[in-house]
Design a protein that fits this description.
There is one protein chain. The chain is an all-alpha fold. Helices cover 22% and strands 0% of the residues. It has one domain. One of its GO terms (biological process) is proteolysis. Residues 1-36 form the ATPase AAA-type core domain. It holds the Pfam family AAA.
Length: 51
């Protein structure tokens, strides 16, 4: 990704449940967001929204 010219209209996203197994070249994202598993209250809220 080093050779890609900077462009404000491109967003690269990745998802994994095993971030430590990523190739080192893929670990160089500018921003990392970790999303934990929802607890019981959050799960009920999600179910209420989608049912």
């Amino acid at each position: 990704m080093d050779d890609i010219q900077q462009c404000s209209h491109v967003i690269v996203m990745a998802a994994t449940n095993r971030p430590n197994s990523f190739n080192p070249a893929l670990r160089r994202f500018d921003l990392e967001i970790n999303i934990d598993i929802p607890d019981v209250v959050d799960r009920l809220e999600i179910l209420c929204i989608h049912t």
